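Example record used in the benchmark description.
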Amino acid sequence: MASDIVSKVDRRWYMLIFVMLLEACRIGQVAFMSIVTDPIKSEFNLSDSGTAFIVSFIYAIVAIFSAIPLGIVADRGNRTKLIVASGFLFSLFFAAPILASSYFLLLISRIGVGLGHAGMMPLKMSFLADKFGARDRATAFMLLPIGGSAGAWAAIAGGGYLTDLYSWRFAMFVLGMTSLAVTIGSWMVLREPERGGLDGIPVANRKSLGFLATMTFAMRQRSVRHCVIGCIVINFWIYGMAWWLAPFLTRSFGISVAKASALLGAVHGTVGVAAVIITFFILDKIGKDDPVKPLWFLTIASAILTVPAVIMAFTHSLTVAMIMMWLFLPMGYIYIGPVYAAVSTGVLPDMRGQVSAVMGMVSGIASTAIAPMTIGFISDLVAPRISNPLDSVRYALLPIALTGLWAALHFWLASKYVKEDQLRVATHDDHESPNALDRSRWQYSSTTNHPEPTSIFTKLARLRFFTVRR
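Model output (structure tokens):
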């Protein structure tokens, strides 16, 4: 019996390693595209905004429209099979540009990659939340970004080298085949966990919640709501800027794509991984039994790291710019564990896939659609109006750098309500699913008095159909 328990525990962490490898492939593919914007721009004779459209915007649009259906499936279907299917999809489509000689074929490739990536976030978060209990969940989610950071480093450094040596198409082919190998390994290792079994909230014998009920419950949880908004802002801030850092370095400092790739890869691979590991040990000490302190940590980190982001956009020294990048870019990794742990524990087990899907969807809109396109448009607007048009990206990055303060505000607000919201989930009596068409039977319970709704959106968020009225 003891050996069986040890085997299960070991297998759980073993599966986490493969989920981390899949995350490394996914983040690596996203990061690589940020360093080949200029080669793609030159080959297809595009503007900055046109490059952002095919590299990031169309990818984000597909991910947006795919995320919610896949999140619903993640809460009802076999997540292991869906993770593997998503891995096969994004691996093959990412490698496809080796055959793509036209703009249209590259567009099809980006659509396929977006569809594959869309499923990974809700599926892996729901999968891990049922592999790890509430006490270890933050630890597992905190380790996950190590895979993303290492993947970004390998893709940027290795992919940049292959791009200079051969072509960006060949580099994408190599990265796609690497992802395919990891996906095959995951297919052999991952096993589906019992949904809600580690939280004492089994869901096998009741109907799954509808999307409207899930979203209303999640947004009514104030800590979840503020974590979601903070996640969106962090993605807009960090990853929006990251899309344009390679063009910023090559244009403003006159270095090659290979050198820019090596410098950025070092940030992701060394400082990124180190920051995640250090944050893991800090939060493991202060936040194991207190869900408030990890959110305090994110509040302080977001506010402080806004300063180097602003300095990087101002400076004309490559050395200073790189030091500032080393300071603020790791924020894109260290927020993931605390935020997703707070959100996963702040909703019911059969809501996690859908909520993670919405988080991934809106974060994707911010990081791969709105932010890159905004920076591209500002760059195109500023270029004809300054003495050195190559410096236009610098001016476009500056307003984005200030949004870290906005993220800090929401993490602080989330910390005020996280204990109350998690207690509400732990004491939730929900032996049958709430029926959205019979709202009179359901009542949201809380010890906190809330002001009367003042708008139609607030009234929708206050619908009362979550706890059985006794």
